[in-house]
Amino acid sequence: MNRATLILLGLLLVAVPLSLLAGRVWIDPANTPNAALILAELRLPRAVLAVVIGAGLGAAGAAMQGYLRNPLADPGLFGIAPGAALGAVASFWLGYQAPGSFFGTWALPLMALVGAGGAMALLALIAGRTGGIALFTLAGLMIASLAGTLTSLAISMAPNAFAMSEIVSWLMGALTDRSWRDVWVAAPLTAAGIGLLALLGRDLDALILGDAAARSLGMDERRVLWLLIGGIGLTVGSGVAVAGIIGFVGLIVPHLVRPLTDRRPSQLILPSALAGALLVLVADSLVRILPLVTELRLGIALSLIGAPFFLWLLLRMRRGTGGWLA
Amino acid sequence: MTLAADRLTLPKRLDSVSLELEPGCITAICGPNGAGKSSLLQVLAGLLDPASGTVLLEGEPMAALSPRERAKRIGYLPQDPVVAWDVAVRSLIALGRLPHRDRGTQQVQAALAMLELQRLADRPVSQLSGGERARALLARVVAGEPQWLLADEPLAALDLRHRMEIVGHLKRLSAAGVGVVLVVHDLDLARNHADHVIVLDRGRLAASAAPDEALSSETINRVWQVRGEWHGPPGKQAFALAG
């Protein structure tokens, strides 16, 4: 366990109990009425979900940046998040969101997972045989673009205004009103995904030296590709399935963690999972505390943090203060 | 312990190339641009599958080896090597141990010592000079303790002094029993420092012999389509173009 893992684990252990108490109404376990119920049924599943989704996005971002050897890479690049979003939007559009029915309960996460799976399968079909990084990235971008277009089409053809607003607000990403059911959907899949990404450590280290040298060090390109598609698909797909699109976490987190490590990609995956968990948990606590009329959507809040961070990265790169290598 | 190729063919790049390389010596692969030098090196390293023909490592077909087993025996230094993240020199060198799945502290230390990098062990790669970087990248291969070291123009980007420094290290490696195979553009260097020279001409084997014979003035004039001859005493010869 490296230094970064220890520091982040410590911070997370402090942040989880704090986030349980934080909100528009601060909970005092001794005095707040129904404190136990609120904690167990509302705050705890929400906090666990924030940790799960953040961990998945953080690990996926670290693996993506390691694989593409590019500090600006983000798991969204592969089209898996847009694919999952398309699945979710289709479930709204098909009217399966009727509360109480079986479909009402499970249609959205299931169809989002089907969407993520479809994007993964398409990616593997196009780029899986040769395993070239350029083809892989381009295929991912095209899938993202196609899924985005189809999502827009589904929104524009929504059966009524209510469905449209429902879809649009869901796409913004949030953890409001999530229950243990969502945790049971996302947690096992995310854990499996992080497990697959962790298996990539050695190969991502070898890729520091470029494609040819990595292969000369015994890297099996196709194994790497399958692990990456599986890992990113499970982490990002399950995240979108329960919380909508939450951007920028995968991009930012590896940059925050990298200076705490020796900069080898293998050393970055687990700490990035922890840092992602911490970031989403803190951001979700903040959107609850902010005194706004309606709660700020988590996806929007993270983009508001993420976009300026991205700009700062670009400026640092332009000044040449170790941008690409930082 | 030989590395041999039997009728290697790759469309438009290699045409039925057969050769046998001995360990413990430096083999230079020479030829004009587009002669197939890098392709041959990559096929010998197991990174490129030939359309037909086989590579034999100690009599065993290379294709039968797992990527990891092959990686333990053959170290490969690509042309224009990249270092994607700004790792410390020690971490860079330790990458050579990846096929062995160990930390290889001892081997990394030995590689640092051999290439005189101890002082720079904890420095980030971005802060190295060109010569130091070339040494660190060579040390990465050395740390893997391969039986064969295949390098694609390892000297191209180096100035004269650093070039001779790396040649010195390669000679020491070959004296220790490693088979060193280099793609080289510099004919003077190949003639004066290699033990064996392979000349490729448009994908075909034009010569495979001791340097004096493989890089005779006649062969150079024919393959490179120039006119010139060798001058100077043995070991310090230079090829000068006529006129």
Descriptive tags:
heterodimer; A: 326 residues; mainly alpha; ABC transporter involved in vitamin B12 uptake, BtuC; 13 helices; 72% helix; 0% strand; B: 243 residues; alpha/beta; Rossmann fold; six-stranded mixed sheet; four-stranded antiparallel sheet; 9 helices; 33% helix; 26% strand; globular
Q: Can you tell me about this structure?
A:
The complex is a heterodimer of chains A (326) and B (243). Chain A has 326 residues and is an all-alpha fold. Chain A has a single domain, classed as ABC transporter involved in vitamin B12 uptake, BtuC. Chain A has 13 helices and no strands. The C terminus of chain A is likely disordered. Helix content of chain B is 33%, strand content 26%. In chain B, the strands form three sheets. In chain B, strands 6-7-8-3-9-10 form a six-stranded mixed beta sheet, sandwiched between helices. The longest helix of chain B is centred in the last third of the chain and has 16 residues. Chain B is globular. The model of chain B has no long low-confidence stretch (mean pLDDT 93). At the A-B interface, α8 and α9 of A face α2 and β6 of B.
List the helices and strands and how they pair.
The complex is a heterodimer of chains A (326) and B (243).
Chain A: H1 3-21, H2 35-68, H3 80-93, H4 102-127, H5 133-156, H6 161-171, H7 180-198, H8 201-206, H9 211-216, H10 221-243, H11 249-257, H12 269-289, H13 298-319
Helix pairs in contact in A: 1-2, 1-12, 2-7, 2-10, 2-11, 2-12, 3-4, 3-5, 3-6, 3-10, 4-5, 4-10, 7-10, 11-12
Chain B: E1 3-10, E2 14-21, E3 26-30, H1 37-44, E4 52-57, E5 60-61, H2 67-73, E6 74-77, H3 89-94, H4 105-114, H5 130-143, E7 148-152, H6 160-175, E8 179-183, H7 187-193, E9 196-201, E10 204-209, H8 211-214, H9 217-223, E11 228-231, E12 238-241
Parallel strand pairs in B: 3-8, 3-9, 6-7, 7-8
Antiparallel strand pairs in B: 1-2, 1-4, 4-5, 9-10, 11-12
